[in-house]
Write a structure and sequence with these properties.
Strand order of the largest sheet: 1-2-3-4
Number of helices: 12
Strand content: 5-15%
Largest sheet: 4 strands, antiparallel
Structural class: alpha+beta
Shape: elongated
Length: 300
């Protein structure tokens, strides 16, 4: 029986799989805490803008005459920004500034511009830019650079690369053989705790493999953007004196968008918030498996 045939039928006896299992185990142990931190902090900051906005108060204004109507405020905004149209106006409190939302068109996908206006004078008071609470800024820094600026960003990139290794080795050792492969797809609820934990680890790894792999790849790009851009430019060099975006610009913009998921609406944000905890769940279930198989025997 050839090596490939043996792997397809009974992979447990293949030495390469055993080696990859050890790589998966020790890499998982080595970066487990990192994965836990990145997973939880990433889920926590998906709605960072909405949280900051909810905790932010509009600037106070001094009443000076009658409150402008929506039509009057809209006319004042269009006078200052003639290339834009007013999408919506919000005046929730007569003692606070109004929010005027503008865009080039009424298309749902059109980029919106939010400005603050004095509802008594029609004066433009600036862009809507709520300050993030300190705990949110701290979480963002923890997720982006592990609170260590450039050094932390580099460590983050290494961690993302090792998460990529975990994904690939996990995909190989997930395969249990042609007669038993379907066991890794489901969770058997009526079984012992160790088996349930194993099923959970295996099923999560299978069904959400591409999502975790995507976060590993895009996390690497966000940590090493210059290196990624240089590599993509080498694959397809940019055309000089061209108004079109280069291949590198298109790919890196796409990598950034899918990593955060903010550009795809509220539903996707909620999915990212929940599914962002999957790497943490994989680490926890993997750690429990390690305890059951190795550590508990040594301790007892």
């Amino acid at each position: 029986m050839g090596l490939f045939s043996q792997f397809v039928r009974r992979p447990q006896g293949v030495w390469a799989r055993k080696a990859l299992f050890q790589v998966h185990l020790w890499v998982g142990i080595g970066v487990g805490l990192y994965v836990l931190i990145i997973s939880i902090s990433g889920s926590a900051i998906v709605f960072r803008r909405e949280i900051a906005r909810a905790l932010w108060q509009l600037p106070a204004v001094t009443p000076s005459g009658p409150l402008m109507s929506s039509e009057q405020l809209s006319a004042a905004a269009i006078k200052l920004y003639p290339r834009l149209m007013v999408v919506s106006i919000a005046i929730d409190n007569p003692n606070r500034a109004a929010i005027v939302v503008m865009a080039r068109s009424a298309s749902p996908g059109e980029r919106r511009r939010e400005r603050i206006f004095d509802p008594y004078t029609g004066k433009d008071l600036g862009a809507v830019s709520p300050d993030e609470p300190r705990f949110l800024s701290w979480l963002v820094s923890l997720h982006d650079d592990l609170l260590a600026d450039r050094t932390g960003r580099a460590v983050n990139g290494i961690g993302a690369t090792l998460l990529f290794v975990l994904c690939l080795t996990g995909a190989v050792i997930w395969w249990q053989g042609s007669s038993r492969w379907s066991r890794g797809l489901t969770i058997r609820w009526r079984t012992g705790w160790p088996r349930f934990n194993w099923d959970l680890h295996s099923a999560l790894g299978f069904w959400l493999f591409l999502l975790v792999l995507m976060w590993a790849v895009t996390g690497s790009y966000l940590s090493f953007p210059s290196e990624w851009s240089a590599a993509l430019d080498a694959i397809r060099p940019p055309v000089h004196n061209s108004s079109e975006q280069s291949f590198a610009d298109v790919i890196t913009a796409w990598l950034s968008r899918i990593h955060f998921g903010r550009a795809y609406g509220t539903t996707v944000k909620w999915l990212y918030t929940i599914l962002g905890l999957v790497p943490a769940a994989l680490f926890i279930t993997g750690a429990i498996m390690w305890w059951n198989r190795v550590l508990r025997k040594k301790v007892s």
